Amino acid sequence: MVHYSTTLHATTGWVRRGAAVLAVLAGSLFASSAHAQTWMVSTTPYIKLGVLDKYNALGGYSAVFIVTNEKTSQEFMLTKQVAKGESGVDVFFPTEPSDP
What we know:
Elements: H1 5-30, E1 47-52, E2 61-68, E3 75-82, E4 88-93
Antiparallel strand pairs: 1-4, 2-3
């Protein structure tokens, strides 16, 4: 009894690899192009910034926030006092509509 399975397995492997390469090439021809996606959009006219003294190591301190307009280079500065025992403060630029 003669077995020819050795040559059969060798050619089968090349055929499978060739079919896989052709499938990848065919898939790339019909694939649509990728577009940049926007993950998050804010529609509020202000931004919230904050500072935190995680371990209350500073005691009372002054927090200075500076925001620069990218187009005009105009700077907006806001200083907030953080009392001893408070861990941090949040601010809005420009001020939130309900803020006097």
